[in-house]
Amino acid sequence: MQPLEAGEPRTIGAYRLLGRLGAGGMGRVYLGRSAGGRTVAVKIVHPHFAADEEFRARFRREVEAARLVGGEWTAPVLDADPDAPVPWVATGYVAGPSLDRALAAHGPLPEASVRAVGAGLARALVAVHGLGLVHRDVKPSNVMLTLDGPRLIDFGIARATDGTASLTSTGVSVGSPGYMSPEQILGKGITGAADVFSLGAVMAFAATGRPPFTGDNSATLLYKVVHEPPELGALPAGELRDLIEACLAKPAAERPAPEAVAAALGGALGAPGWLPGPLVEEASRAAVALLDLDADTSAGGAGVSAGGGFAMPHAPYADGPSGPVPFTAASYGGPAGGGFGPPDPAYGTPGPGSGPGTGPGTGGGAALPGQRTAAEGPGRQASVRVAGRRFSCTLVLAAAAVLAVLSGGLYWLDVLPGPGGKERDLADAGPGASASASAPAPAASASSAPNRTGSPAAPKGTRQDVPKELVGTWKGTVTTARLGLSSEFEITIRAGRVGEVVGRDKSVLAVLGTDCSGDWKLSSATDRSLVLDTSGGPNPAPGVCSDGSADERFSLNTDGTLHYRSGDTPAGNPEGDLRRSP
């Protein structure tokens, strides 16, 4: 958790803010406290989204849906104001580690704990599905481990099945790679069975320490989810494995209902001993840490008016009404992984050493047979990864690959394994490819070889602002260096100085509904070229949107076109000529 900075609000509605838990593409999440002492997570959207009436309509609809959901295995929605100048929603704060953080620190859970996690989540889905809703983003970072049982959070992309499907034009996130169901990836009709598939993937992760589907990049990962069996080699044969395999069935109709999953897992949820000792200690520390938090009243900051708020019925808490289940902005335009707030993992334990929305990544976890588990005490220490920002060049590989998967095009490209085809090693197209960095070429040189291996510091320019010749909207086709995948690219460049945001791309992955668009800062400039920086911010859709690059180059050609060359290796180093749009 980060302290509040100058200019950030100190109150939102009736809630005092204690610190910032994280930020994402759609807004920010703060830790707050009500007048009655309840700790909450308060989520506000970015002001420019608040000006979008369709966005507000989706926000209101999602709040109305979320407040209907009850059940002891979800977190409560306490308050919201979709009509405020800056819309916000307050949810109950869950003190405890998320499942992905717990496994990164302590290893896989013992079978009894896995069964308890699965049973609790299944019962949460019974409540959700009973109202005609679908969560759509059940994943380890949205599962919190508390002393009295698991909690399913971030009801952000849940949608009433009878009326909200039309509100999808602004980049709706439909899930997180590796935990999405095949029908989500293929853009088919979504039912509660999609959540059951995700539940099976979460249980597999809890039991083995690694997702059931892995890949060097999002294209490979999504292909495996649709076409290949889950990787459950570390999971012993038996009833639990059989149930997980049933949940991960490719045809939605073959998956068990949440009620059947809960019945099969059985057991007393929340009973003493359901969590291993190390996690009991961690959850206890998280709860105690909240007692020492207090708002910093020394720094100035504007509050956000409560406005009319939302009167949530049937309040189980003395300090505020409730309709249990949390809500985030992903369903109305946010990228996978939550939309706003800590992108992944979910907001969770504050305490000494907690960073700004940091947490271990979940992709490609490394739990193997024989490794330590949480029950054995302190296990391996995972490195903490801070997600960076994501922008249009990141779609060149992911979007083209995903679209090709859906059309069978990757067989033709010989990128993914297909009938009678060979597998191509894509490892050097992933994040690990940037192991070294070469010296950058001058920004004005359009013919120099692009940097393929990293994002070194940008060279010094001869001016401090954007030349007027480069101001405008530019469009064109760019092609990745490694695989030759092509996609359309668009960026709008405006006047500005070094260090300022001078550009914004348009990067919406229509297949997944993921919006990777973002702001580009000016690093250096000459009279005919720019070096822009797209790195350094949160990535709300890891695996789909890349982390960007500090070496995004634009230079004017003699024919008036603009040559673009990206230093973003995970995105495939896209390059091409752009034309000014009228």
UniProtKB/TrEMBL annotation:
InterPro entries: Kinase-like_dom_sf, Prot_kinase_dom, Protein_kinase_ATP_BS, Ser/Thr_kinase_AS. CDD domains: STKc_PknB_like (cd14014). Pfam families: Pkinase (PF00069). PROSITE patterns: PROTEIN_KINASE_ATP (PS00107), PROTEIN_KINASE_DOM (PS50011), PROTEIN_KINASE_ST (PS00108). The keyword Signal does not apply. SMART domains: S_TKc. Residues 429-450 have a biased composition (Low complexity). Keywords: ATP-binding, Kinase, Nucleotide-binding, Serine/threonine-protein kinase, Transferase. Residues 15-275 form the Protein kinase domain. GO terms for molecular function: ATP binding; protein serine/threonine kinase activity. Residues 350-367 have a biased composition (Gly residues). Residues 334-381, 424-473, 531-582 are annotated as: Disordered. Transmembrane segments: none annotated. It comes from the Bacteria. ATP binds at residue 43. This is Serine/threonine protein kinase. It comes from Streptomyces virginiae (Streptomyces cinnamonensis).
